[in-house]
Structure prediction request, 183 residues.
Amino acid sequence: MRFEEKTLESKKIYTGNITEYEVQTVELPNGEKATREIVWHNDAAAVLAIEDGKMIFVKQYRKPIEKISVELPCGLVEENEKPIDAANREFEEETGYTAKKLNFVTSFYNSPGFTNEKLYIYEATEIEKVNQPLEQDPDEMIEVLKLNFEDAWDFMKQGYISDSKTVFALYYWQQKKVGEQDV
Prediction:
């Protein structure tokens, strides 16, 4: 079976600071036509950092969901920037920490049904507090939290942690803890 959809018509309906919105008319493999609403978005990079048995999170208000969210430090990959460099920059900007090593964990598309945004996750090791960290973006109001596994898991159960990258990070942490017990 053929799955590819052929673009017949494309119309940009809005260009913002970080996203572009496009409506496409496509031909489905069966010859029928359909409409696709697409959000073009830069990739993002997140940092999973555990120090002294606690993971570093950022707490901020997220307007699209109208609530506070506790998440991994994360930000957009800028043009001509490598995801690992974006992860390092964002980690310092949002938390005031830096890592001597960032190890690639995984990458995935957040919601490929409507956006091309790809998220890269790195695990930080050899973490240090920075004396004069990079400045946060002026529109970001962030609080840094350090939570042990049990408290982070409770935050997820209560809905404070509900975004895909951070839920993934908790399951990743859980698997690491299981692996450490097996040794």
Observations:
- The beta strands are 6-15, 19-27, 33-41, 44-51, 54-62, 67-71, 74-76, 97-109, 118-129, 143-148.
- The CA atoms of residues 75 and 122 lie 12 Å apart.
- Residues 6-41 form one domain.
- The helical segments are 83-95, 149-158, 164-182.
